[in-house]
Amino acid sequence: MAKRVMLVIGMFLTVYPARPASGQVLYGSMVGTVTDQSAAMVPGAEVTVANTSTGLSRQTTTNEVGYYSIPNLPEGSYDLSVGVSGFKPYVQKGIRVSINAVTRVDATIQVGTLSEEVSVAAITTLLQTTKSDVSVSFDTPAMENLPLSG
Fold first, then answer.
1. What structural domains and CATH numbers belong to the chain?
2. Which residues pair with 1 in a beta bridge?
3. Where does the pLDDT of residue 14 fall: very low under 50, low under 70, confident under 90, or very high at 90 and above?
4. What residues does 77 pair with on adjacent strands?
5. CA 8 – CA 20 distance, rounded (Å)
6. Which of 51, 90, 97, 106 could form a disulfide with 56 if both were Cys (CB 3.0 to 4.6 A apart)?
7. CA distance 43 to 86
8. Which tens digit of pLDDT belongs to each residue from 82-134?
9. What's the pTM?
10. Contact between residue 76 and residue 88 where contact means Cβ atoms under 8 Å apart
């Protein structure tokens, strides 16, 4: 009888493997595409994000279809800049990156000389369109103001 129970447990564990443990996520990320004014993808564009509070700066280059991804960004407000030869520099300020969220920022750059600059100052929407999970995060003041029992 004990051998049958062990056999059933063994078969169960073989058929239903353990799920990986999910830990607390402390970072967000920024993704997007870089296109020109005719909606053509721009490969090889230098994309830089800088945290306005800490000065943390990360840089990447768009791939062959104009896509970029910058993972593991601490929560905060970021400025994004895009530069590529033959196009005007593009700057977008005040982009909010949240914990465990993917912030999508698509940039449309214009043909021009390097002496011209396009600057966009707008707050992006906080709608999560890249992942389907639901999460809630609390900032430090909210945690400090939680009522304590006892």
1. 27-125 (2.60.40.1120)
2. none
3. low
4. 96
5. 23
6. 51
7. 13
8. 999 999 999 999 999 999 999 999 999 999 865 666 667 666 555 666 766 66
9. 0.63
10. no
Higher pLDDT, 4 or 140: 140
Measured at the CA of 56, the angle between CA 50 and CA 58, to 5 degrees, comes to 65
From its phi and psi, is residue 91 left (phi > 0), alpha (psi between -120 and 50) or beta? beta
Tell me if 84 sits within 8 A of 76, measured CB to CB: no
Query: Which 8-state DSSP code applies to residue 41?
Result: B
pLDDT in tens, 29-88: 999 999 999 999 999 999 999 999 999 999 999 999 999 999 999 999 999 999 999 999
Q: What is the DSSP string of 92-133?
A: EEEEEE-TT-EEE--EEE-B--TT--EEEE-PPP----S---
Q: Answer for the pair 110, 118: CB distance below 8 angstroms, yes or no.
A: yes
CA–CA separation, 122 vs 25, rounded Å? 27
Q: Which residues contact 59 (CB under 8 A, 6 or more apart)?
A: 46, 47, 48, 49
Asked if 63 and 35 touch (Cβ cutoff 8 Å), the reply is no
